[in-house]
Amino acid sequence: MVLLSVFFLVTEQYSDKLKPLRHILSVFVYPIQYIVDAPTRLFNNVINSVEGYEQLLSENKVLKQQQLINSARLLKFSALEKENIRLRSLLDSSFKLGEQVLIAELLSVNLAPYEHVVVVNKGSRFGVHVGQPVLDANGIVGQVLKALPLSSEIILITDPNHAIPVQVNRNGLHTIAIGSGQLNKLNLPFLPNNADIVPGDLLITSGLGGIFPQGYPVAVVESFVEQPDKPFAVIQARPTAALNTSRELLIVWSNSQVIPLNNPLSEQVHGQD
Amino acid sequence: MAKIKLPLLIAYWLTVVVAMALNITPWKGAFLMASPDWVLLILIYWALAAPETASVGKAWIVGLLVDVLTGQLLGQYALAYAASIFLSVKQHKRIRHYLIIQQSLVVFMLLLFARVLIFWIENINHQPVPINFWLPVLTGAVVWPVVSLLLRNIRIV
Predict the structure, then answer these.
(1) Does residue A190 lie in a domain region?
(2) Mean of the pLDDT values across residues B60-83?
(3) What is residue B125's predicted lDDT score, i.e. its pLDDT?
(4) Which residues of A touch B21 (CB under 8 A)?
């Protein structure tokens, strides 16, 4: 028994040969996750059904207005995108095409209290695969850690084991944001004391590392404390995504096709993040 | 090997499933950090109450399911559960006659033993483990009398 466990541990650590076994077992345990999620789901359903007509009407009105604003913005956005592609082709650099998304719903279960890993109800049967970025309406949430047949596990950007390459939106300064273990905090440990970054700066994904598509908001810088006797400053940021409240998440397929360009090597930055 | 009663088997799996659900219930605040390892508590209870039903092999399978459930390295909980259930089954005749407080102490040691195994395995991955990783061991020992008495009283098989 012990030998078998050790064998499993080693195999799983160094290869993915045990993936089928995990997939089969996950189908058995999925009902448990579903049951644990049920009270939350029921509560939401009840809330939805007792919502008054007036409230729905006003909500509808607000949403319509928002839709109008968003579509107007999108009009401009598509023109800007075309312009961006044109300019980039002038500069001999590549441009990634748009992305496809799948809406997944969070199962309110907790796997290990010291890890920021959540479970959603879409799995590899929907084509989800490991390493896909996950967003909500306000920014980056995390990436797919394990894709099981009926569900998948998503590691949040605030997990202590997660790092995400970011850049400051204002001036393009590149750095890496590392999870702090707290849902409302990210650490930026690799910036010197004289770095041009101030509280209020928006951090967006830089697209380096090849996992997260470029240009999505990640966090807003909250505090910058200089450490005169140390090489790096202590910088903390607050994720823009509502990590603990949003129940609907978007799983993104970034289109790996690249617009024709003269130098195919320019965007080939592969790395582990 | 003694013949295993079917109702006992059903009760065993039913409680284990409930414990699994409790393990992944999203508690709030301090509860979250202190939530004990319900599955192992249940397994220990059955190992003491019905050692012929709650074999080491079953504990191993339950551990494997918990591994998948919590997305850990496959075999981690399986190893920890099998090892501590092996100890409990081995010593069940002695532990059974202890006072409930003394049992709590033994359970504390068993939970700690399982936790140390998990700690070692997680360290292979060089995962940083916060201090409250150890808290469930303590709370597990504290809730043991409740679990044990509750299960003993609602047991009909």
Answers:
(1) yes
(2) 87
(3) 67
(4) 32, 35-36
Task: Give residue B4's pLDDT band: very low, low, confident or very high (50, 70, 90).
Answer: low
CA dihedral A106, A111, A112, A117 (to 10 degrees): -40
ipTM higher than 0.85? no
Residue A217 lies in domain: 163-239
Neighbours of A50 (CB within 10 A): 8
Using a CB-CB cut-off of 8 Å, the residues of chain A touching B89 are: none
Number of domains observed in the structure of chain A: 1
Beta bridge partners of A101: A252
Low-confidence ranges of chain A (pLDDT < 50): 259-273
Cβ–Cβ gap B74/A145 under 8 Å: no
User: What pLDDT score was predicted for residue A176?
Assistant: 92
Q: Is B61 on the interface with A (CB under 8 A)?
A: no
- For B23, other C-beta atoms within 10 Å of its C-beta total 25
CB-CB under 8 Å, B75 with A5: yes
Cβ of residue A28 closer than 8 Å to a chain B Cβ: yes
Residues 138..157 of A with a Cβ closer than 8 Å to B: which?
Answer: 145-146, 153
Question: Within a 10 A sphere around the Cβ of A4, how many other Cβ atoms?
Answer: 14
Does residue A251 lie in a domain region? Answer: no
